[in-house]
From TrEMBL, chain A:
Fluoride-specific ion channel. Important for reducing fluoride concentration in the cell, thus reducing its toxicity. This is Fluoride-specific ion channel FluC. Residues 1-32 are annotated as: Disordered. It comes from the Bacteria. It catalyses: fluoride(in) = fluoride(out). Na(+) binds at residues 119, 122. Na(+) is not transported, but it plays an essential structural role and its presence is essential for fluoride channel function. It comes from Amycolatopsis jiangsuensis.
Automatic annotation (TrEMBL), chain B:
GO terms for cellular component: plasma membrane. It comes from Amycolatopsis jiangsuensis. GO terms for biological process: cellular detoxification of fluoride. Na(+) binds at residues 71, 74. Na(+) is not transported, but it plays an essential structural role and its presence is essential for fluoride channel function. Pfam families: CRCB (PF02537). The keyword Transport applies. Belongs to the fluoride channel Fluc/FEX (TC 1.A.43) family. It is found in: Cell membrane. The lineage of its organism: Bacteria, Bacillati, Actinomycetota, Actinomycetes, Pseudonocardiales. Fluoride-specific ion channel. Important for reducing fluoride concentration in the cell, thus reducing its toxicity. It catalyses: fluoride(in) = fluoride(out). This is Fluoride-specific ion channel FluC.
C-alpha cells in the first residue's frame, strides 16, 4: 500500500472505536491520531513526563541488572540484550491489548508502563552496536545471526503477546455477554 | 552508584524519546513510524560514538550516557510493536521498510559514530 507510506503523503487515519482490535495505535509510545493522546500533554504535562521518566529509569536499571546477571563473554553472543528485547516485545503486545481493549486504564498507565518501563528496558542502540562489535573476520555469521535472530524472536513475541492477551480478553467478554 | 547513573540516564532518555516522537509525528501524518526511527537512529549514532571512545570514556560516564540515556532513548518494544501493527493493517511495504531502514541506517550510524570518535581520540 504505497499511499500509506511517506511523509509527503498525509493519510487521514481516524482510529476506529475502542474495543475493536484495529483500534490499537500504530505507535504504542504516543499516537497523535488518537485524540486523547494528542491532548495528554496539553493540560498537565508534568505527571505524564514524570511517569515516563520514572518508568524509563526503572526499565534501564532492570536492563542493567539483567546484563550484569548474564554477562556476555568478549566476542560472545549477547544473550542478555536478546532476552531483554524479546521479553519487552512480548510485554508490549500484552500491555497494548490491555490498555486499549480490556481496561479503562488510568491515563498514566500507558506512559508509565509502555513508554517508560518497556521503552527504558528494551534498547535498539545496544542491539545495533553489539552487532557491530560482533562483526569481525570469521564472525559475520554470528553477527548476522544475532541481528536477524533478535528481530525474528522479537516480532514473534509481539504477535504472541498480542494473541494470547486478545484471546483471554475476548474469551472473558463472551462469557460476560451471555 | 552505577545503578543510580543508569537510572538517571534512563529517566532523561525515555521522556526525550516521547517528546521527540510527538514532535516528529506532529509534522508527518503518515502511518510510517518516523518518530521512533528518529530516536533509534540518534541513539545508535551516539552509542556508536561512546563505544568508539573506548577507554578514554570513564565507566561511570558510559553507564550514564550509554547504558542509561541511549538505552532508554532507543526502544525495541516500540519498534517491534509498530512493525507488527503495520503488517496487521496490511501496510506491508511500510512494515518491511521500517525494519530495513531501521537496521541499515542504525548500523550505518553506529559505525559512523564509532569510527569518527575513535579517529578523534587516537
Amino acid at each position: 500500500m504505497p499511499d500509506e507510506f511517506g511523509p509527503g503523503n498525509p493519510v487521514p487515519d481516524p482510529l476506529p472505536e475502542a474495543g475493536q482490535s484495529s483500534g490499537e495505535p500504530i505507535d504504542p509510545d504516543v499516537d497523535l491520531r488518537d485524540p486523547v493522546q494528542r491532548t495528554e500533554l496539553v493540560r498537565r504535562h508534568g505527571p505524564v513526563l514524570g511517569a515516563i521518566a520514572l518508568g524509563g529509569g526503572l526499565g534501564a536499571v532492570a536492563r542493567y541488572g539483567l546484563a550484569r546477571a548474564v554477562p556476555a563473554a568478549p566476542g560472545g553472543f549477547p544473550w542478555a540484550t536478546l532476552l531483554t528485547n524479546v521479553a519487552g516485545c512480548f510485554l508490549i503486545g500484552v500491555l497494548m491489548v490491555l490498555v486499549t481493549e480490556a481496561w479503562q486504564a488510568h491515563r498514566l498507565v500507558r506512559p508509565f508502563l509502555g513508554v517508560g518501563i518497556l521503552g527504558g528496558f528494551t534498547t535498539f542502540s545496544t542491539y545495533v552496536v553489539e552487532t557491530r562489535g560482533l562483526l569481525g573476520p570469521g564472525s559475520v555469521p554470528l553477527a548476522f545471526g544475532y541481528l536477524a535472530g533478535t528481530l525474528a524472536a522479537a516480532l514473534l513475541a509481539v504477535v504472541l503477546g498480542h494473541a494470547v492477551t486478545r484471546r483471554a480478553v475476548l474469551g472473558r467478554t463472551e462469557v460476560a455477554g451471555r | 552508584m552505577t545503578v543510580l547513573l543508569v537510572f538517571l540516564g534512563g529517566a532523561v532518555g525515555a521522556p526525550l524519546r516521547y517528546l521527540t516522537d510527538r514532535a516528529v509525528q506532529s509534522r508527518h501524518q503518515s502511518l510510517f513510524p518516523w518518530g521512533t526511527l528518529t530516536v533509534n537512529l540518534a541513539g545508535c549514532l551516539v552509542l556508536g560514538g561512546l563505544t568508539g571512545a573506548g577507554a578514554a570514556l570513564p565507566a561511570p560516564l558510559f553507564a550514564l550516557l550509554g547504558t542509561g540515556f541511549c538505552g532508554a532513548l532507543t526502544t525495541y518494544s516500540t519498534f517491534g510493536y509498530e512493525t507488527v501493527r503495520l503488517a496487521e493493517r496490511r501496510a506491508y511495504l511500510a512494515a518491511v521498510a521500517n525494519v530495513v531502514v531501521s537496521l541499515a541506517a542504525g548500523f550505518g550510524g553506529a559505525v559512523f559514530g564509532y569510527e569518527v570518535v575513535q579517529a578523534l581520540v587516537s
